[in-house]
Amino acid sequence: MTMCDPCKGGMRIGMRCFPSGEYSATIGYRQNAKTNIMKPTRENIIEFICWLFNKRGVDAYLGEEVTIAEHMLQAAHFATLNDAPEPLIIAALLHDVGHFTNEFGDDYIEQGMDNLHEEAGSMVLSPFFPKTVTEPVRLHVAAKKYLCATDHMYYDALSDASKQTLKLQGGIMNSQSKKEFERNPYFASAVQLRRYDDAAKIPAMKVAGLNHYLDTFERVRKPH
Known about the structure:
By secondary structure, the chain is mostly helical. The protein has helices at residues 45-56, 68-81, 86-94, 98-101, 117-125, 131-150, 152-157, 160-168, 175-182, 187-199, 214-220, and strands at 2-4, 10-13, 16-18. A hairpin with a 5-residue loop joins β1 (2-4) and β2. The radius of gyration is 17 Å and the shape is globular. Residues 1-35 and 103-114 have low confidence and may be disordered.
């Protein structure tokens, strides 16, 4: 993130300059009424993510006491505190972006459906970010199933909402699935991301907003 003189205190994302006031303290970006981003491209992907956070970030998070944006910002906060590599910090920040992009309604849990948000999120991010970001995102649900199978205290510590979604996601891994998961080159990163995910459900917790990560986005993204 850099200051943009022509915007008189605004901020710059890539080549685009946003006047002061288009950013909010919590999410980091407030959509301008004229902004209409319908499709992510390599040129606008960071702006697109900001737009998604603003448009859908205030949505309730699956029965938890935080919004989806608060949850993902907290996950990135815990990754940062843990000195995680920058791609894993971005993966933590975007791990639930699939909730913004899938076609299921908000009541999919009540309808007994798995919305496959991990697949949707990885798919929308893959053209713009390396596998060190997209694979932990894709595997963070599998990591929950794995941890439930390998750590008897882990399941007991899950929130009620997370236990409910576990049932929709296929339940605890069996022995064969555990072995296959452990052979995945992104296994360790996915498990670590899951730990950040589980911790990131603290109501009213003060953490950095999305604008704090704009420079990290630029360093981690694929060249454009």
